[in-house]
Specification:
Helix content is 22%, strand content 39%. The strands form two sheets. The protein has a five-stranded mixed beta sheet. The protein has a four-stranded antiparallel beta sheet with strand order 3-2-5-6. The radius of gyration is 20 Å and the shape is elongated. It is an alpha+beta fold. The chain folds into two domains: 26 residues; 117 residues, Immunoglobulin-like (Sandwich), CATH 2.60.40. Strand 5 and strand 6 form a beta hairpin. Bound molecules: 2-acetamido-2-deoxy-beta-D-glucopyranose (NAG) (2 copies). The site of one 2-acetamido-2-deoxy-beta-D-glucopyranose has 4 residues, from helix 3.
Length: 157
């Protein structure tokens, strides 16, 4: 007969192993995919570019870039949770624009772990080998922001 305490012990050991796997810093644990690097380079010549990115509860802070300078961050997508989303505010002079800089369904295949963006005033351009694909800024539309889980006015620069 299996005693209750043995069952409890077995469950605690399993939980401990799972938690340990979850937190291990190796590049391949069972809950995370390969690390993704995002590089954001300013292609704006006549002004400093402010870049402020965040994921739901993870604010990466404001970073100022001169022309040609690059800001980068990395993260590890969690398995089963699609569309890891980092949204960014971009500011220069009196402008403030928004863009979702990492959307798994859009970027996973293209980037192969390294997403390189150049930021123009007209919008962000994704470098794909020798090609670039440029995107429009996100419309300044509160409804859309809410749909994406962005809270009202949380992305102030
Ligand atoms: C960077 O800016 C230059 C000058 O405006 C432009 O010709 C070039 O296409 C831009 N590069 C990218 C990747 O957007
Ligand atoms: C905002 O976005 C929603 C959904 O994308 C759209 O239906 C609506 O017309 C937009 N509003 C404005 C003012 O652009």
């Amino acid at each position: 007969m299996i005693s209750i305490s043995k069952v409890v012990l077995t469950i605690s050991i399993l939980l401990t192993i799972l938690v340990a796997l979850q937190f291990q810093e190796g590049e391949s644990n069972i809950f995370h995919k390969k690390r993704v690097f995002v590089y954001i380079t300013s292609n704006i010549t006549d002004a400093q570019l402010g870049v402020h990115c965040r994921e739901k509860d993870n604010d990466l802070g404001l970073h100022n870039l001169n022309f040609g300078e690059t800001y980068s961050f990395s993260f590890r997508p969690v398995i089963f949770i699609e569309a890891k989303l980092y949204f960014c505010g971009f500011s220069w002079m009196n402008e403030l624009k928004r863009f979702d800089i990492y959307v798994e369904s859009r970027d996973d295949k293209d980037c192969k772990g390294e997403c390189r963006w150049k930021i123009d005033k007209s919008g962000p351009c994704k470098l794909k080998g020798d090609d670039t694909e440029c995107f429009p800024w996100k419309p300044n539309n509160v409804t859309e922001g809410r749909q994406l889980g962005e809270e009202n006015s949380t992305l102030t620069m």
